[in-house]
Amino acid sequence: METDPTRAIEWMIGLPDITFLAVEDGLDGVGRIHVETVSRPVGCPGCGVVARIKDRPRVELVDLPVSGRPICLVWHKRRWCCPDPDCETGSWTEEDHRIASPRQVLSTRAALWVTFQVGRFARSVNEVAIELGCGWRTVNHAVITYGEALLEADEGRFGQVAALGLDEVLMVRIGPFHHKHFSTQIVDVRAGQLLDVVPGRSSVEPMAWLAEQGRAFRDGIEFGTLDLSGPYRRVFEIMVPNATMVADPFHVTKLANTKLDECRRRVQNETLGHRGRRDDPLYRGRRLLTMAKERLGEKGHEKLTGILRAGDPTGDVATLWQAKEAVRELYSHGDPDLALDWVTELGRDLQDTDYPVEARSLGRTLTRWKREIAAWHQAHVSNGPTEAVNNLIKRVKRAAFGFTSFRNYRIRALLYAGKPNWDLLPTVRPR
Question: CATH 3.30.420 spans which residues of the chain?
């Protein structure tokens, strides 16, 4: 059994070929462990002459806590100089990535630990900083620096993608008018993996990202999933014209429910002259209207019929309710040809001038997107995995209490939802 306290401290530090010098109990409650590298002859990088030690600066590095107590690793560096007066090299300071990377305030093992904790488990940077006894910026700098290095080193993080999904997330509201800044998530919907995050929700940045991936990558994309977004449709039409675009069934059904709700509110104001109140028939039935017909049951159907009879004298809400059910019925079978005929007929019928304005609007949208809507019956892929990735990103946002820097937002999102190879983290060298 090893009883030498020096060997015990070296074992705790976990650094081979590092000489332990002393332990200091600081007045600020922070323990300090003094170390230096093993002394070896060093040649001048310019001329090769054996260098001499110029001075010994001390560099204090935030290290992992011991028994809940903050620890500072004091590295006694060597600053070398060339004894040859004709050499232009001058002086330089030794570097050892095992102890700390250049321009890092955390030791290497502490930086790797905080990157794993914040990136893999979506912990708050402030929470980890309190545990280490340092500042928020110190931890965040390490997470972003090592996170970028990990993502660059993980060249095989994703391969060929057969089904690509695009969707937007609100990143931040900035300024006195709370101007909204969005981001676009690019997702492999088959693997449920976040590939990258680009700023905005226009077509420009996703097209630039796809252009960077190369033609072979774009040619391998068979399906493109999206909500009913014109800019994202433009991305697929221009960059991957041979891919089949698939409108997400959830968003199609949601659109029908939205139009139904708009109609209910309009009829409410036209008949009673005010917004919905607790005792108003249509307001009481707002949840029943959006429920699936088969889930209502006999009692629920009777209640809904009475509500419409009392609060919908023109029958507009009932018409939108039937249209919503017709849209839902579209996904009750798997025949692509029947689906295309169905949505074509439904879109044309809903645009009849006798129908409410909300029904005509729904009909126009169904007509514009009929091929993408019917394509689901062929591809059977949806934007559901993209929405799941969005939820993961929102969890990161909650842990960070929001983001204002897109760089921080992108790296944190990719570390948590991008499925990097965490085994590569100890081998990365940040720039």
Answer: 163-247+383-425
Give the residue from 225, 224, 228, 235 showing the smallest Cα distance to 251. 228
Q: How is the beta sheet containing 179-188 ordered, strand by strand?
A: 193-199, 179-188, 163-174, 223-226, 244-247
CATH for 163-247+383-425, among 3.40.50, 1.10.1740, 3.30.420, 3.30.70? 3.30.420
Distance separating alpha carbons of residues 124 and 97, to the nearest angstrom: 26
According to DSSP, residue 374 is labeled H
pLDDT tens for each residue of the chain, 431 residues long = 455 656 656 666 667 678 888 888 876 778 888 988 888 888 888 888 888 888 999 999 999 998 788 989 999 999 989 988 888 888 888 888 889 998 889 999 999 999 999 999 999 999 999 999 999 999 999 999 999 999 999 999 999 999 999 999 999 998 888 999 999 999 999 999 999 999 999 999 999 999 999 999 999 999 999 999 999 999 999 999 999 999 999 999 999 999 999 999 999 999 999 998 989 999 999 999 999 999 988 899 999 999 999 999 999 999 999 999 999 999 988 888 999 999 999 999 999 999 999 999 999 999 999 999 999 999 999 999 999 999 999 999 998 888 999 999 999 999 999 999 999 999 999 87
